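Look at one record.

>
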Amino acid sequence: MILSPKTMSAIISIVASAISVATSIVIASTHEATFWPIAAIGFATFAAMFFLSHFLINQFIFEKINPIYKTIQSLNISRREIKKGFEGKDILTEVNREVVHWANSKSQEIDKLKELENYRKEFLGNVSHELKTPIFNIQGYVLTLLDGALSDPSINKKYLERTEKSINRLISIVEDLESISKLESRVLKLDLEKTNIAQLANEVFEAQEMRAKKRGIKLVFGQDYEMPIWVKADKKRIYQALTNLVANSINYGKEGGRTKVSFMDMGESILVEVNDNGIGIPKEDIPRVFERFYRVDKSRSREQGGTGLGLAIVKHIVEAHEQTINVRSSLNEGTSFVFTLAKYKPSKG
C-alpha cells in the first residue's frame, strides 16, 4: 500500500504529539498544571510537525521523482512547471500512474517494433526469393544458349522467349514495388477528377477478356448500368486497382466460373464490389491477403504470372483516396472485395 505524503505527515504528527503530551503529563504530575496548557502543547506540536514533515517529505519525494518524471515524459520543462502539475494531487499516486502508463506504452512499442522487425525480415526474404527466381531462370537460359543451343534456331528461339518472359516478370516486380513505395511515402500524388466508374470497369473487362476466355470465366456486371456513375478519383490508379482485382479473381476463379462487378449508391459514396465464385480464401488467410508477397495459393499465382503485390497495391490506392477496402470469402464458394469511392460533386458557383 502506498501512503500519501499527507498520511505520512499525519502519522508522524500524531506520534510526535503523543510523545509531547505524554512528556507534558509526566512533568505536570510533579508540578501543579491544568489541562489546557497540555492540550495547547499537544495541538501546537501536531500542527508544527504536520506542516514541517509534509513540506520535507514532499521536497524529498519531489527530488527523487523529478528526474524520473522528466524522463518518462521526455519533456524539457522547469521544476516549477512540474510542481504546478502536481498541485492538489497525491504525488505518489500520480507518479505511480504515470510510470505504469509509461511502462505499458513502452511495452506496446517494443511489441510493435518486434512485429515490424519480423515483417521486415519476411519482406526481405520474399523480395529476395521473388527476384532470385527470374534471375536464375535467365541465367540458366543464357548458359544453355552459350553451351551450344544458340546455333540451333528452334532451340534458341524457345529459350530467348523464356528469357523474355522472365525479364518481363522481373520488370513487373520492380514496377509494383516502386508503386507501393510511392503510395506508402505519399510521393505519388493523386490526380482526382470526375470519373465514370462503370465505364472504367467495362474498359478493364475488355482488357482482361482474353485472359478470362482462357479459363472459361465470364466477366459480368451486377446489372445494366446505362447511366454514368460518377466518382471523384484518380482514373489511372482506380483502373489499376480494378485490373488487379479482376485479374486476381480470374487467377483464382474456377474454370467455367464468373467474375462480377457491381456498384451501389451509399449516399456520399459509391460502393464497388468485385465478386467471384472461385476457390475462396481460408479463414486464417483473410487477414493477410493485403500483405506484400502474401499468396494463398503460391503455385497458382506464379503460374499466372502474379507478383504477389497486386492486392497490396489495391489497398494502398484505395487508402490514398481516403477510403476503405474489405474482403469476404468462403472456401469453394467465392470471394468478394468491396471498397468505396467518394461521389463526384460539381463545384458550386
Observations:
- The first helix runs from residue 5 to 30.
